[in-house]
Amino acid sequence: MALLQIAEPGQSAAPHQHRLAAGIDLGTTNSLVASVLSAVPKALQGEDGSILIPSVVQYGTDDAEPLVGAAALAGQTQDALNTIASVKRLMGRNLADVLKAGAPSYELVDQPGMVAVQTVAGIKSPVEVSADILRSLKTRAEASLGGDLTGVVITVPAYFDDAQRQATKDAARLAGLHVLRLLNEPTAAAIAYGLDKGAEGVYAVYDLGGGTFDVSVLRLSRGVFEVLSTGGDSALGGDDFDRALAHWLASQQQRAWNLLSAHEQQHLLTCARAAKEALSSFDAVDVAGITVTGEVFADLTAHLISKTISATRRALKDAQLSIEDVDGVVLVGGSTRMPVARRAVASFFGKEPLTDINPDEVVALGAAMQANALVGNSANGEWLLLDVCPLSLGLETMGGLVEKIIPRNATLPVSRAQDFTTFKDGQTAMSLHVLQGEREGVKDCRSLARFELRGIPPMVAGAARIRVTFQIDADGLLSVTAREQSTGIVAHVEVKPSYGLSDQEVATMLQDSVTRAKSDMALRMLREAQVDARRLLDATEAAVHEDGTELLSPAERLHIQEAMNLVADKLETEAPVDDVKAACNALNMVTANFAARRMDASIRKALSGRVLESIT
Amino acid sequence: MTVTMTESAARHVQRSLSKRGKGVGLRLAVKTSGCSGFAYAIEFADDVLPDDQVFESHGTQLLVDARSMPFLDGTQLDFVREGLNEGFKFNNPNSKAECGCGESFAV
Does the global pTM surpass 0.80? Predict the structure, then answer.
């Protein structure tokens, strides 16, 4: 049992008080993890001191763990087919969706519901690839926080539909993470800015990341965030700027892009990216003997920038606001470092955007703050967070049309109901087809689920009343219920979007992750042993400092010091768990006498100066 | 209804109080949190509050508020050394289960 200490009035610590929570920005190009440490949100570094982990996974032929991050990115040019980058674009998407946005450098396989990737290690679903990235973020977080994570908040683009959100949740589950909540990226950025500065008013969040563009209009007031509207383009980002410049570089070299090998294309893309980044600090750069000026770059990418500005204009219109209503603009995403983007945003809104917080980190920092609040670490209460439904949700009606039940941009969580009736005399069943999208025709919307309501009592057409309720919870996940009003019979579906990954399949993948359980467990045991060893060292050091001179001979003291050095050495060299434990045991042995003597001494101290009668 | 402490606990409390320079005694409380349902709290007490019960043990006052009382009735507070560590321990007859770390308990 733990021993307790006296606290000042009202200051007693709750047990297990600091629950470890983290915010994860699972990005198209880069991912990162942040946590609130001593009330300050901070992005967590890896062993190499880097904050951003490239969202790249490389699979090899052997059973070895896949490479994730910088190591995988470095190998991309050599093994483009087995190196999966920008997997976020594939999440919850089918092959046709993905190919519309341009084919990646790896081989795609059409799987029911969601596209997959053919690698030497077998067919990998985007959920598995994302789980590998999440796993490496989890390892980083647990190593730097020194314990297991209670829960995480993962951010997703506001544009993600239900299938993409569910895929993200499944990936987290596969990585062994408990998702407290999915959070829209711009909302996370608003949290980071809103709470840090206590700012109130209407804000626009312009988020130009590696692969996605999101723009959101939010209202912040007294700690309450309401998303008024969202818009953007889930296939527009920094990568497109690289591509525009790379194509131009090829044309300057008098070479046709399509005739270049995958390797050469990759090389040009890498050069283009470096040039783009350099142009954020310099007016002109030299790439492979070609001079690229800021003006040339601005011309080449003007069409991309103007796409973002029109999406911004649309989002404002959706929120029924004008430019003057916007009190501030928040820039998110590494691509907003580009002067072309900053200039365009500043001139559109007529004011300088907010850039105080690192645009690469701001989303993860906001997510970390929310995760911290959700696990109950934050002292001064929760804050309410309102999100919106990114696309309209509805039902198929006669004639292949979609009846919208929940309109786009409805504030979440939301519940809306509508009554439907039978179409034919004596009709006893009704088929319900749940769709997502803005178009009127069923074929133009995304099918999310189908289910049937049976047992409707036979009546003339139009007499039955069937109430269909759509409900979206705070995570943006949908459940649909149909209820026949006279009999009360009910049919229900949880969407469980239609990308085809059933619970059984997820369970199978979880089973597969058991093969990795052994190495995970070994790492965990090592970390526990190291923590124990550190605690023992501190305690021994304090005891020697206090009573060493009085109770130890110089030789004994030297022995203890040597044993302590050995433990410290095992810690420093990351020695295997058995060695750490052996060193600790050795230290315990040499201090056993010392501990007994300290005990005696304290009893003697307690008894000294008393006469015999008062003791007995 | 009684709460007591061992002599070594009382001695440690006295010493801590005199080092701190103020305080009327030691407040014991039970809070609803932790992984087994309840958690102990030990704090210095600067005042006796209206709903406190006061117990005197080895010349030291123990204060328990009315809400915590049912959970602490019969408890003996002990002060122990374990290895090189020392601290307070609750010997609580009401406690039926403790979490592994002993920071919280169930009744």
Answer: no
